[in-house]
């Protein structure tokens, strides 16, 4: 077969990002205890967060040119750190994985088969068809090209007040990830197919991180079922407008802020876990505009969780570490934006005031809610997801009550995210129905990790089958 | 020994597993669709992977689009600028174009009523080349400066209430082989307007084509006009000079001291 697509260079770039992430995972004690497969999920999120975030900062703060010579050391820095750690310390003991029950084994095998099939089809299809989704062409891939052309996140096209660039002040972490991958692999300028696998790989990463976090809290059986429910949601995988088949930044954002929350609330999280969570939350801040408030929601939920579990003091170090890194990312965003004249943004949210919020909520949310429900009932987009998830939460409500402490951070995170989205819907200048129709599916994707972990907690059959964190 | 405890335990175990079983069943009901979609995409992929970047783009956007992009890439240096005359608000073609031509910097031109264009940012330097995106998403090349409107050029001051109008063609009129654009202009008790400027389809007509003629009907209708031998103005056309279809016309009525009044622009239709 002739190969016209940049298959080798795209996969090589993805491999380098994953290697960088695996090295970061190796620096985080709780994560390096995980099985190889589960570490890959965290590695992809941390790799993208590190590669994109460090290149963003190096370019804006230190004016490093975004070219292979400067980017490769950034990508390999975690590898060097992990090697040093391995040289200086005794190899970590990895507990033998607990044996699965036959039912768990069947479900995990199904998940692995489905996961492998869908992931490979997403990657193959990405390498076959150029980017063809609205936001990808309008914003994310276009911005990546402006940045690559200038070899700087402060590209003249972004800063020129007369240049027609849509959403020039949107955070550009994912475009920077694209540029890093393209530069390292010396990828062609004009073949969008190179970048699609980078987005596609967020789907398996999402599921692996979900399974890991859910298994650590609710056991393998519940984790398998919750992960299966997520894996069978068509939009999450195959939507070009927010899912892994497109180049929107919603699935990456879901992984970053959800992953940060999961790491911060893990049993035994210390400073290293806090720093890793900070890297993920910082990436969320630099990925989408809503990433900043979502990172705040995750930190607040983790702080409340700490209070409910024996006091803030015990978890102060990881929380401060995470908050510090996320705050640094927020400062970077503010500084980067300060050089970019506001323009060509739809002004989606009108000026904030409590009165405007109350008025907007009363006038707009009922219509928006109806459109949201219609979107969730769309079988083509969501299959049976929005029957399975609410039913699971309802049937497992008593269990959730018994596991209130474990469920607390996820319930709070979801409530915070919903409040944020409701405020945006209330204050938006877009017609409510149109707004919900174009954004609600993507917002559901953003809430995916805390939601499906909460589902796993509701499905946990009982303490006998609890899985003890060493998946 | 309590013989009922085993069934009770079994029932409790089943009840405990019920939520997971229900959700698993619902999730699995969706699995075949996921598998089908994945397999369908797998089937499409080998052909797509085999294609060159150029062939892949042609497949998605069509030959014409790709050829326009290639021409623009060849003519605009990587650090250069170009204009996108975006005639179809919200049309995805503009997004594609901006992305495919990046890092070249685009300047946006907005359509005016008369098929002419203005830069969206007044301070924007106008590049040489423009890509004109039509409402149907098709793209053509044009010289950017040639697209820009000359309507009201040089008329910077405020408008004045100068008596006058453009009578033909009337706004929205359907006319058969229009022979003239005409009207009148004269200050009450004063001289006729010093100049009339006429724009047709966004282009200013040669001032020498504007002829003056008497308008006794104006004198009769408007008291105090005085002498009306040069109150009328017109630009004549031979029948057939204007193609059938929609056209756009505007006039500036200019009095002494450069005071002016703008009339139009408005559209009219020439019928065959």
Task: Provide a descriptive summary of the structure in words.
The complex is a heterodimer of chains A (471) and B (272). With 471 residues, chain A is mainly alpha-helical. Chain A has 22 helices and no strands. The longest helix of chain A has 30 residues, at 202-231. Chain A is globular and about 60 Å long. The relative contact order of chain A is 0.13. Helix content of chain B is 32%, strand content 29%. Chain B has helices at residues 5-50, 53-61, 63-75, 92-101, 144-147, 216-221; strands at 81-86, 105-111, 117-119, 129-133, 139-143, 164-168, 174-176, 180-185, 195-200, 203-204, 211-213, 232-236, 245-254, 260-271. In chain B, strands 3-2-1-4-5 form a five-stranded mixed beta sheet. Chain B has a five-stranded mixed beta sheet with strand order 7-14-13-9-10, with no helix packed on it. The longest helix of chain B has 46 residues, at 5-50. The termini of chain B are far apart. Classes of the chains: A mainly alpha (471), B alpha+beta (272). Chains A and B meet through helix 5, helix 6, helix 10, helix 11 and helix 18 of A and helix 1, helix 2, helix 4 and strand 2 of B.
